[in-house]
Sequence to fold (272 residues):
Amino acid sequence: MRLILLIVFYFSVFTLNAQSKVILKYYDTLFKVVSKENAAYCYEFANRDSFYNSIAYYYPSNKLYSKFISADTNLNSSIGLTTCYYASGKIKDSVFYSLPGRPTYEYHFYENGNKKKVSIYGKEPGTFETRAFYESGKLWAYVYKKNPADKIVSDAFDEDGKPMPDYIYERPAEFPGGIRAWQIYLERHLNIHIPYDKKAPNGKYIVYVTFVINEDGRVTDVAAENDPGYGTKEEAERVIRTAPKWEPAIQFNKPVIYRNKQGIAFVLSGQR
Fold:
């Protein structure tokens, strides 16, 4: 991201030819695979031996959104420079991956061209240095972790440069009362008799459900990743979809969208 000139050297890689096998995938605004009719982005993955030359477009406008090289057709295996653009054509993000899915550095920009966030990652896993900026260009936060065993250090400032004592760098979404309260909610509201009522054989039926906690704490976009059958998928989705509000995730002192995943097990054993 930082070295914008690198874009020039990678540009020719994204020229597709008729002999390339192109795979199309469509994603919503949360980058979940969806049908073409519900898409916000369209991704083209052109196979070139052991990697893919990839181009993404805003859908349905077909304005350029991203250019990158990837090891597969998923969105977490980028190699080299990945560049994303606003619909206006201005650079939004620029990230360089030294290994698939592992960034070396990343730059994020406001649409006015000012830097939004700059991160440099160390050789040791989990080490990094990040600076976040206000749209005006003034420093907002400085966050770093220089050794794997260290805690994350975070300092934040208002636009006058004064320290912000109650600043939260990053905090995951949490169910009111914590993990145990979430477990109790699931235990009390899940109909564990569903597979029994549908005459399922004895055994364990595990459903993995992904869901989103919005900035206001509402649970949305509930979808099971698998379906063991006997009504377990529908019941697992229902109990999460009807959950009360969570405490939203925080990043740089602001509520943000948070994607979560929950496994729910139905166990049948013994004679009937």
Notes: The domain at 179-268 is CATH 3.30.1150 (Fusion Protein Consisting Of Minor Coat Protein, Glycine Rich Linker, Tola, And A His Tag; Chain: A; Domain 2). The radius of gyration is 22 Å.
